[in-house]
Design a protein that fits this description.
single chain; 69 residues; alpha+beta; 19% helix; globular
């Protein structure tokens, strides 16, 4: 097993929210101050600006949280 380079360790882009939610049940928030516009959620989002940026297209309501549940 090799040590991942910074490029390999870069934020993963997921195909869809189903794939992203397997790793991050609450979705991914761009920062800790973001509030969910969509109402109640079951899980708290994982906070990562890099991961959010890689998956921003999955933030349908543009509230700063991709794939929230």
């Amino acid at each position: 097993m090799s040590i991942p380079t910074p490029i390999e360790a870069a934020a993963k882009t997921y195909k869809n929210c189903t794939e992203l939610n397997k790793d991050y049940k609450g979705g991914v928030a761009k920062d800790a101050k973001v509030k969910n516009k969509g109402g109640k959620t079951k899980y708290a989002p994982f906070v990562s600006a890099e991961l959010y940026k890689a998956n921003a297209s999955k933030d349908r309501d543009k509230d700063g949280i991709a794939c929230e549940r």
